[in-house]
Amino acid sequence: MAYIKNGRFSTAETPKPLAIVTANDESHVQATVLCTKYSGLEIRIRSGGHDYEGLSYTSIVPFVILDMFNLRSIDIDIKNQTAWVQSGATVG
């Protein structure tokens, strides 16, 4: 929870996730989605860490955080003028 930018979401009263899954590849994302769906849990997604409203860190029902910070590659195809940016990519 060290990535929380807004301190009001890291108080003792703030509901905490049952687990934090740090995805290192796409299969971790798929497995987390399937497991939480099967278990009836909600998922909160954390990617670049710019969630100032706290939607990735709070819920009134049991939840799991899927941290996609490590999925931050950027692939640029100049010929086709396209780019693929993973959700954990940040500016700078």
TrEMBL record:
<dbReference type="InterPro" id="IPR036318">
    <property type="entry name" value="FAD-bd_PCMH-like_sf"/>
</dbReference>
<dbReference type="GO" id="GO:0071949">
    <property type="term" value="F:FAD binding"/>
</dbReference>
<feature type="domain" description="FAD-binding PCMH-type">
    <location>
        <begin position="13"/>
        <end position="92"/>
    </location>
</feature>
<protein>
    <recommendedName>
        <fullName>FAD-binding PCMH-type domain-containing protein</fullName>
    </recommendedName>
</protein>
<dbReference type="InterPro" id="IPR016167">
    <property type="entry name" value="FAD-bd_PCMH_sub1"/>
</dbReference>
<dbReference type="InterPro" id="IPR016166">
    <property type="entry name" value="FAD-bd_PCMH"/>
</dbReference>
<dbReference type="Pfam" id="PF01565">
    <property type="entry name" value="FAD_binding_4"/>
</dbReference>
<dbReference type="InterPro" id="IPR006094">
    <property type="entry name" value="Oxid_FAD_bind_N"/>
</dbReference>
